[in-house]
Amino acid sequence: MCLQFLSKQHNPSQNAELIEKYLENKWDAETTVEKMNQLYKREKLANDANKKQGLQRSLFHKIMHGFKRLYSKKAVVNTNYREELMVQNGDIFPRWKKQLDQAYACLLKKTEKTVNVADFGAVGDGKTDCTRAFQQAMGSGKVKVKVPSGTFLVRGIRLPSYTHFSGEGQGETILKLIDKSPKRTRLISNANHIKGNSHIYVEGFTLDWNVDRLSPFKKTSSGNNFSSCLTFANVSYGWVRKVEAINPGLHCFDITSTYYNYAGDGLRGKGSSSFVWLDQLKGYGFGDDGITTHHSSNIIISNSHMCDPSGRAHQSGFSNSNGFEVDDGSQYVWLANNSSARCFGGVELKAHANSSAAMHTTIIGHLSVNDNRSFNFRHIGHHHKEEPASKTAVGIQAVKLVAYRPIYTPLYKKSTPRAMVISSYKKVGINNFSAIGDPGYDYHRQPVIAIQYRASHVWLDNIYVQQFNKAGADIEVFGGKNRASHVTIGHVTGTARNGPIVRAGKEVELVYSDWHGKKT
What we know:
With 520 residues, the chain is mainly β. It is 11% helix and 38% strand. The chain has a single domain (9-47, 75-436), classed as Single-stranded right-handed beta-helix, Pectin lyase-like (Pectate Lyase C-like, 3 Solenoid).
């Protein structure tokens, strides 16, 4: 398979094999667990990386902060966090997945009744509004709902607790929004975002948000967590498997809280989703991100592929459209063997300035093809010395990463290509990372990997950079008043003929281990 044409039809079940093909180190599951544990151990040693800062607040700010607490909760940073790992059927998972497995057994026990939407009048002819038939079939939950092959037009589907909802497969059972649906419509969501829902399973569909019903010149999203193909808001115990999402106004799949929360760094939104597993998903044409999480915890995203966003949720030329995004207030998110192509960011771990950063994120295997920034970790608004240091941008552990030929993109016209950028985050460990460039592509002497903007306690080991012939440094650690600090670099091989080039600002003190290259 030619990676530069990793298409919308790509089968993400091939991802693990493809990732191994382009890695220098071929690790089995046990070795991967060992390497991950080493990263967690190093993270634990850096307990000074997240000291609290005192802030002088006016009376007005104190009153506003108190108001924001009404719909927020404290973001707890676990400085001694270490993920407990397990191997299950040859794959690596967090040990808390056992809780998900137990919940799935409970779901099956409580959904012994099975119904078919066709028995309630649903017709898959691509013409009939079937919304009422779907809702009647689901009732108040505790039911397995089957959907046959066909194209079913709906005005949105709301899933109650204890619902097992399944179709005949991607391309076979198509759920599509009717032409008169408002722009804010979510195609599938849970029934109650305020009180919350639990134990919801979705499998075997193509979800068509029907973007063509809108003017081609309009932005496609309505703000906050509307306008997506599938939204779980305030859901405990959810599963989404083998689902394809196409052309959503905002996101293909969004695991989120009741509402997005912008109450400030150090706070998270109430009504979080938790213990949700997304597996074997595909998506393209998304206005913002493919798969994203907000203010939610204990999320697994595996064996999925996101590509070719429209970027239409943003101003043209400023589309921060990522294949996979772990966003504001997310905690304990696990990404394994996913792939992205032709996005702004392949994987972005981040937060907006007025929200808490994603914390304690684990990546085991990702293939990024022709993304502008293959791996991009940042907390916006907390990068410069004049800005407050991030309280929550803590904890990234990632192994088995491949950045294949990052490129310039019309999605974000002024953004220079990078295989990886680390900004603002503390306690970041990267091991077994292959960055493969296009030898004839003009990277305008820009660095391949950048560590910058007050990032600290960063460890890089087994880094392999090749074919970036027209790039600058293989690894650049930026100095100046916004310098990175406490950066440790282990084994690196690079593009330069006589060794990799690591460039560091004069204020930066690096620690080298197992070093064989050239530094400037």
